[in-house]
Structure formats: structure tokens, C-alpha cells
Amino acid sequence: MAQKAANQIDANQWTLFDKIMYGGLGYGAFCLPSDFFKVIISIIFPPLGELINVIEDTVSKEFPYFTWDTLVMLCSYNAITHLVYSLVLTTLFYIPGLVYTLTNIVNKQRQVEYDTDTYIYANPKITQPPDLINSNDIANAGKTAGSAIQSAGLTAGKSIKSAGSTAGKSIKSAGETVGSGIGSLRSITPW
User: Fold this and answer.
1) Count of domains in the chain?
2) Cα–Cα distance between 59 and 80 in angstroms, integer?
3) Are both 102 and 163 inside the same structural domain?
4) Rounded distance, CA 140 to CA 136, Å?
5) 90 and 121 housed in the same domain
6) What is the largest CA-CA distance in the chain?
7) What number of H helices and E strands is found in the chain?
8) Are 49 and 38 contacting, i.e. CB atoms less than 8 angstroms apart?
9) Which domain holds residue 153?
10) CB atoms within 10 A of CB 104
11) Which end of the chain is least crowded, N or C, by CB within 10 Å?
């Protein structure tokens, strides 16, 4: 039975649920997202997750793990503001601090993706970052959009004017009809 289960795990026929329920979690490959432990720590205590998020790039893999660069990064204005915001928001009923810290973790991961040479897009055909747009392109786009909005406004204005004129004439004729009807009713009734 154990050999059959091992063969199924090797053939990727077992899901993570099967491995947890029936054994075999330690057998074969098991991948976790790179931010998994950071998210778990953030759920337990958001300011600690923010601290790990701030100093993770400067922590060394050999002893001593915390170097001068780690302390410099920790004492920077940006790091202190992130930590204080996380602490204050956590004291305001926990959820705001958790949301703030998880947002910073996601934003830092996105920043890392865009800072490297490999860009990750939803469309796999796009492998290069978009070219930078210069100010002339932006100005030309603004002029084009402005003229399109202006012509649409003129067309809409003319349509509204003609519709208003038609509606006004209809209301005037309806008023005249109602007025003449009321006048004829007055001539019939004795009071």
C-alpha cells in the first residue's frame, strides 16, 4: 500500500489535501510562496510583519545576521513611518493594521518585480517593459482628447438644443389644448 501511495505521489496524482489527509506531505516536492511566513507573522502581529518586511533585504545569511546596514535601514525615515503607522493602526482594532501591513508586503513584492529585468505581466507575450512616455506624447494625447471632448460637447449641445426646442413646442401645444379644454368645461358647468 505504501509503495502504491508513493507511486501516486511521484506521478502527481495526489493533491495537497490528499497528502495532508492520507500522509505523504514530506514526500516529494512541496512549494510555499516566498512571502508565506511573512504573511503568517503579519496575521499574528502586524507590526512584526512590517518590521520583517522593512529589513528583509538587509539581513545576512551568515552570522551576524543583523549588520550595520540593517540598523541603518531600520532607522531610516521611511522604515520608521511604516512601523509607526502599522503599530498605530493595529491598536485601532487590529484590522486596519493588518490591512496596512499586508498592503505594504504586496506593494514591496510588486516593486521587486518591476525593479528587476524580468517583468511579470498577465499577458505572457509581453516580455519587455513598456517604453517610457515623454512629455510631448502626453501633451499630444491631451490635445487630441481635448478636441474630441470639445466636438462631442458641441454635438451634444446641438442635440440638446433641438430636443429642448421640440419639447418646448410640444409642451406649449399641450398647454394650449388643456387650456382650451378647461375653458370649454367652464362654459358647460354652472358654477
Assistant:
1) 3
2) 17
3) no
4) 6
5) yes
6) 110
7) 8, 0
8) yes
9) 137-191
10) 19
11) C
4 and 63 share one domain: no
* Alpha-carbon span 38 to 143, nearest angstrom: 47
The single-letter DSSP state of residue 164 is H
Residue written as cell 511573512? 38
What does each of the 191 residues of the chain score in pLDDT, given as a tens digit? 667 767 776 677 777 777 777 776 666 666 778 888 999 999 999 999 999 999 988 888 888 888 888 899 999 999 999 999 999 999 998 999 999 999 999 888 877 666 555 544 444 555 555 554 555 555 566 566 656 666 666 666 666 666 666 656 666 665 566 555 555 545 555 55
The x, y and z cell numbers of residue 88, run together, are: 498605530
**Would you call the peptide bond into 64 cis, given omega within 30 degrees of 0 as the criterion?**
yes
Residue (of 130, 129, 132) closest to 117 by Cα position? 129
pTM: 0.50
Q: Who contacts 110 (Cβ-Cβ below 8 Å, separation ≥6)?
A: none
| Positive or negative: CA dihedral 136, 138, 139, 141 | positive
